[in-house]
UniProtKB/TrEMBL annotation:
Keywords: Oxidoreductase. InterPro entries: Ald_DH/histidinol_DH, Ald_DH_C, Ald_DH_CS_CYS, Ald_DH_CS_GLU, Ald_DH_N, Aldehyde_DH_dom, Aldehyde_DH_NAD(P). Belongs to the aldehyde dehydrogenase family. Residues 12-434 form the Aldehyde dehydrogenase domain. The keyword Oxidoreductase applies. Gene3D superfamilies: Aldehyde Dehydrogenase, Chain A, domain 1, Aldehyde Dehydrogenase, Chain A, domain 2. SUPFAM superfamilies: ALDH-like. The active site is at E216. This is Aldehyde dehydrogenase. The keyword Oxidoreductase applies. It comes from Streptomyces kunmingensis. Transmembrane segments: none annotated.
Length: 440
């Protein structure tokens, strides 16, 4: 096994490029072999990964399997079942002026050597799910896990090259200096998940080599709650998705938008739902995670003053525990509304009606997701038509990203490009046009 961490990034890329040029990664059989290898790694070493996720994020085992390990296995299975089909050349109509014997079609070419840079919040899923697409498309891959989830980074760096072709895939661990050195290399695609500040650094570096990028970023995803909805169900679904991974989820509902009367009723429903989900002391349940580091812990506790605490607010810096917290009476210009929260704080912001909610959303950066709880098809359709976001979830936050046939990605400040299922293959391939006009 080649330990990629001791190699200079330029040598890693050159080694992988030699493999790519040999043509070895192109046949379907090589691609499916890699996906099976990755699958074996996840099924045989799921416990090792779960232990690492617990160490890095206090992530409970059930959540680790559901949102990271089994999630990636499902993505692999979805791809394995359909890959041959997806790779079939697609015929297109040819204009008559080119003659009746001319035919045209598209094929999907692998790009070459691609770079995948992952963040710390779902450190296994967000590294490995893009890798599934990159390998399925026949590329060589440099995978860069987040240094802020060091245990997961280590386990993946150890396991991955043992389960896939290690001359086609390398894991490069490290922080800013290592990533900066990687970004100086010439890649054929860069797939980055994380914050927009670094997204800009990635895009600038990519421009040097005319390398296309996918940027999976974040933002403040609103959840509109219509009047006259079943608030017990709304609250249960908001709580189970907002406080997943202690709120450190890119598609978590960031804040609630609702009218003043519904806001009052929702407060009680949310308090009850938090108790039902996590018990009277969430610190004691293994189903509830911890904040990744002191910097984020201090940032989050600094936001608690932005409104009246309905439930939660308790925190302990030594264990980086911050209780699932709901804030009411939150002003639109308060600190908690200034940036993506990325933690277990759910502010309720009041608007008079749907028009005001739509205006509120449209005045801000385009979010990664928009959620709505409503019984009305007209309200749903207006929200879909009159706002722009990476994706939309009606009645259930977060779950749209578990549908492999849906593209997952942002728009505007929440990112560019998309992946999952077939969209990952598209992202990591070049769709090449072919015209064939016979001679004679
Ligand atoms: P992070 O700090 O782990 O950074 C992400 C990656 O960027 C890491 O691999 C890190 O090494 C690298 N990096 C950091 N600074 C760098 C620099 N100066 N130069 C080059 N590389 C650098 O994670 P994060 O950015 O804190 O992640 C949280 C953000 O990511 C949130 O905004 C969240 O919404 C977003 N996010 C988006 C998605 C999505 O799928 N769209 C998923 C998860 C998180």
């Amino acid at each position: 096994m080649v330990q990629s961490t001791v190699e200079h990034p330029a040598d890693v890329v050159s080694r992988l490029r030699t493999t790519f040029r040999s043509g070895r990664t192109k046949p379907l059989s090589w691609r499916t072999e890699q996906l099976h290898g990755l699958r074996t790694m996840l099924t045989e070493h799921g416990q090792d990964l779960a232990a690492a996720l617990l160490a890095d994020l206090g992530k409970g085992e059930a959540e680790a399997f559901r949102t990271e390990i089994d999630f990636t296995v499902r993505e692999i299975d979805h791809t394995l079942e359909r890959l041959a089909d997806w790779l079939r050349p697609e015929p297109v109509d040819v204009p008559e002026r080119l003659g009746p014997d001319a035919t045209a079609w598209t094929v999907q070419d692998p790009l070459g050597v691609v770079l995948v840079i992952a963040p710390w919040n779902y450190p296994a899923q967000l590294l490995l799910a893009p890798v599934v697409g990159a390998l399925a498309a026949g590329n060589c891959v440099v995978a860069k896990p987040s240094e802020l989830a060091p245990a997961t980074s280590r386990v993946i760096a150890d396991l991955l090259p043992r389960h896939v072709d290690s001359d086609a895939l390398a894991v490069v661990e490290g922080a800013v200096p290592e990533t900066t050195a990687l970004l100086e290399q010439h890649f054929d695609h860069i797939f980055y998940t994380g914050n927009g500040t670094v997204g800009r650094i990635v895009m600038r570096a990519a421009a040097e080599h005319l390398t296309p990028v996918t940027l999976e970023l974040g933002g403040k995803s609103p959840a509109f709650v219509d009047r006259d909805t079943d608030l017990a169900t709304v609250a249960a679904r908001l709580v189970s998705t907002k406080f997943l991974n202690a709120g450190q989820t890119c598609v978590a509902p960031d804040y609630v938008l609702t009218d003043p009367r519904t806001a009052r009723e929702l407060e009680g429903a949310l308090e009850k739902a938090v108790q039902e989900t996590f018990g009277s002391d969430p610190a004691r349940t293994s189903a509830y995670g911890r904040i990744v580091n002191d910097r984020h812990f201090d940032r989050l506790t600094g936001l608690l003053g932005s409104g009246r605490v309905v439930v939660g607010g308790e925190h302990d810096r030594a264990t980086r525990y911050l209780a699932p917290t709901v804030l009411a009476d939150v002003a639109p210009d308060s600190p908690v509304m200034a940036e993506e929260i990325f933690g277990p704080i759910l502010p309720i912001v009041e608007v008079e009606d749907l028009d005001e909610a739509i205006a509120f959303i449209n005045e801000r950066d385009k979010p990664l997701a928009l959620y709505a709880f409503t019984q009305s098809a007209a309200v749903r359709d207006r929200l879909i038509a009159e706002t722009s976001s990476g994706g939309v979830g009606i009645g259930l936050p977060v779950a749209h990203l578990t549908v492999s046939d849906l593209p997952f990605g942002g728009v505007g400040e929440s990112g560019m490009g998309r992946y999952h299922g077939r969209y990952s293959l598209e992202t990591f391939s070049h769709r090449k046009a072919v015209l064939d006009k016979p001679l004679g």
